[in-house]
Task: inverse folding
């Protein structure tokens, strides 16, 4: 498996505009959930490695445009990417890319003819952009970036907290194609006094959240104007699946995916920070240097979640693998720098006593997964504890112990992998 992505001749998927129109015709017709019955299909089970980790594995086609996935919840859907997918691909295939929605009534189809993205608020010229215009009137921007849920790996957070109990598969890497948000803001002409941007989607707010809780996320104007934040209409060289935000989603490279608003329909330029539920009540982290705190601590100031932390993972060998002593063992996996590029990946075969530098695969840019590889020889029979650690350009590295906050956000503890030499 390793060879698939360690070689430098692997090229990132290319986007073709024609795909988009083909796809849109398909989507208009059938409702998203029409004819998809979960109970009618036999499902295999998987045991995620934490208490109460039993989940169904749903076969391809259970959800439209989705392959085999780990079922976390049916409606609104939470679908986790099976770990084996990361072993095979540095870019996560669209049909096995994880899915996360908050509202049960998000649209099950989108009319691409009437779909508009509006730029409103403190602008000289409000815009209403059709998909045609977005595709043809703005320069194409492509960027490889990891989309990771704030709560990825929440199942490993100790003490346990409420929320989806994901293992490590609430993340995925893709080449996003679309338009830099800066282009739209330039065209609209931002007025003096503007400081923030609100991003809104097609779905309406709904129970269990308060009635007016539309999904709305807010970024600083400066951030939105950085030339990296983009409106993506394609993913890995194809139209993105409806469940991943078709026809257009926000991509905020290096930031947790709660900001990556799907089915984006409105960008409001404002002179104040976000006041809505999703910025002031949900997705908050302690205002500490790490974003963690002591469990149970009272009176901690909270702020909106933001930059991603560095992470690294094993994809081979599998957990609990048996190898022959005296022979070199190849180990490898994927890593990311988080909000900035990866600086290095360190590997330990003795539970963290000694670390060696792993070699890195092709560099697709600062926000992409990057393959890493190392080898070691277990001289004696016995159990070895393998560990891997990512360090980013800011010198941030993964902690030995997972940090804690009430949302179970930003887990990034160093992975431990047991290996048997016989
Ligand atoms: N419109 C909309 N966009 C959304 C959300 C949502 O509920 N509605 N959830 C956000 C969160 S919390 C996550 S983790 C990502 C998930 O993206 P994906 O489903 O494409 O993997 O979408 C983000 N964008
Ligand atoms: Mo999320």
Result:
């Amino acid at each position: 498996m390793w060879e698939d992505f360690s070689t430098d001749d692997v090229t990132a998927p290319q986007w073709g505009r024609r795909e988009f129109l083909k796809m849109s015709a398909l989507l208009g017709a059938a409702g998203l959930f029409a004819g998809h019955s979960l109970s009618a299909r036999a499902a295999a089970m998987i045991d995620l490695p934490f208490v109460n980790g039993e989940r169904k594995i749903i076969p391809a086609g259970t959800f439209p445009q989705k392959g085999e996935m780990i079922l976390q919840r049916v409606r609104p859907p939470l679908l986790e990417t099976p770990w084996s997918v990361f072993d095979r691909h540095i870019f996560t295939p669209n049909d096995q890319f994880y899915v996360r929605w908050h509202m049960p009534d998000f649209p099950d189809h989108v009319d691409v003819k009437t779909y508009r993205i509006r730029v409103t608020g403190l602008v000289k010229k409000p815009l209403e952009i059709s998909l045609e215009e977005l595709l043809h009137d703005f320069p194409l921007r492509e960027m490889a970036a990891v989309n990771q849920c704030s709560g990825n790996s929440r199942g490993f957070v100790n003490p346990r907290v409420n929320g989806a109990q994901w293992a490590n598969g609430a993340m995925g890497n893709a080449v996003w194609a679309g338009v830099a948000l800066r282009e739209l803001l330039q065209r609209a002409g931002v007025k003096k006094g503007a400081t923030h941007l609100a991003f809104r989607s097609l779905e309406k707010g709904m129970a269990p959240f308060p009635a007016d809780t539309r999904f709305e996320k807010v970024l600083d104007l400066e951030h939105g104007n950085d030339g990296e934040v983009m409106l993506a209409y394609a993913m890995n060289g194809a139209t993105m699946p409806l469940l991943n935000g078709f026809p257009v989603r926000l991509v905020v490279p290096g930031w947790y995916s709660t900001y990556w608003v799907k089915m984006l329909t409105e960008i409001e330029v404002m002179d104040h920070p976000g006041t809505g539920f999703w910025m002031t009540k949900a997705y908050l982290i302690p205002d500490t240097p790490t974003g963690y705190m002591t469990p149970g601590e009272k009176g901690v100031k909270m702020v909106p979640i933001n930059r991603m932390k560095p992470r690294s993972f094993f994809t081979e060998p599998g957990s609990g693998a048996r190898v022959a002593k005296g022979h070199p063992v190849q180990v490898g996996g994927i890593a990311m720098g988080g909000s900035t590029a990866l600086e290095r990946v360190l590997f330990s075969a003795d539970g963290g006593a000694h670390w060696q530098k792993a070699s890195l695969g092709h560099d697709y840019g600062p926000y992409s997964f990057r393959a890493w590889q190392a080898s070691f020889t277990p001289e004696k029979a016995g159990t070895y504890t393998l560990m891997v650690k990512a360090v980013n350009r800011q010198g941030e590295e993964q902690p030995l112990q997972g940090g804690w906050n009430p949302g179970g956000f930003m887990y990034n503890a160093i992975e431990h992998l047991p290996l048997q030499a016989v």
